[in-house]
């Protein structure tokens, strides 16, 4: 990562902390970047952009021909993230403003090979069900904040358990974890 990008991310993270923007932690970012580098996705879908911190983290490690579609419902956050993408001269991000539950059905089927869900916790199950037809069969789905906000996503855990869908919880920082699912393990549960 070049010096400008590193300094920009540091400033964006500090500003996010000061304003209580719900960004991923640096530990979480490092884990996700390693995961993305190992999977080499070509088409990433991010549900929940906030100020664009996680999106920018991902752009530093994706290949030049890869792209990211990111969806944010809060207008101010969307505008701020787009400004950050422009400042960093990132061209392979398509930022969409609107309710992800309405946007996801309009996206191309069997297209995304990496999905990152970090938005309204109570809607995680709805997001997961909606992205299933949008994923390639070998896609990786990552869901954030599954320890800290578990009480807000009990329906997600119940659905996974009721349908015997395997998932892996990865402790990414001291107070939270992410959930990793393989799209192929959800094939029978659409």
Key features?
7 helices, seven-stranded mixed beta sheet, single chain, 190 residues, alpha/beta
Topology:
Layout: H1 3-18, H2 26-39, E1 43-47, H3 53-59, E2 67-72, H4 75-87, E3 93-97, H5 100-103, E4 112-117, H6 124-131, E5 135-143, H7 154-162, E6 168-173, E7 176-182
Parallel strand pairs: 1-2, 1-4, 2-3, 4-5
Antiparallel strand pairs: 5-7, 6-7
What does this entry look like structurally?
With about 190 residues, the protein is α/β, with parallel strands linked by helices. It is about 35% helix and about 25% strand. The chain has seven helices and seven strands, in the order ααβαβαβαβαβαββ.
Task: Give the count of helical stretches.
Answer: 7
Can you summarize the main beta sheet? 7 strands, mixed
Structural category: alpha/beta
Question: What series of H and E elements makes up the topology?
Answer: HHEHEHEHEHEHEE
Oligomer: single chain
Briefly summarize what is shown:
The chain is an alpha/beta fold and 190 residues long. The chain is built from seven helices and seven strands.
């Amino acid at each position: 990562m070049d010096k400008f990008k590193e300094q920009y991310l540091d400033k964006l993270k500090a500003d996010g902390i000061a304003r209580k923007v719900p960004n991923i932690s640096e530990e979480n970012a490092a884990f996700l970047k390693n995961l993305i580098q190992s999977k080499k996705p070509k088409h990433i879908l991010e549900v929940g952009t906030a100020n664009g911190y996680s999106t920018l983290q991902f752009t530093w490690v994706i290949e030049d021909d890869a792209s990211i579609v990111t969806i944010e419902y809060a207008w101010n956050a969307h505008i701020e993230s787009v400004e950050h993408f422009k400042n960093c001269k990132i061209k392979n991000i398509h930022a969409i403003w609107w309710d992800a539950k309405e946007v996801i059905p309009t996206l191309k089927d069997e297209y995304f090979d990496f999905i990152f869900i970090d938005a309204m916790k109570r809607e995680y199950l709805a997001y997961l069900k909606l992205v299933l037809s949008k994923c390639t069969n070998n896609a990786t789905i990552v869901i954030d904040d599954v320890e800290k906000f578990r009480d807000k996503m009990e329906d997600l855990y119940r659905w996974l358990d009721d349908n015997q869908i395997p998932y892996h919880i990865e402790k990414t920082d001291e107070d939270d974890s992410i959930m990793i699912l393989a799209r192929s393990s959800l094939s029978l549960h659409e």
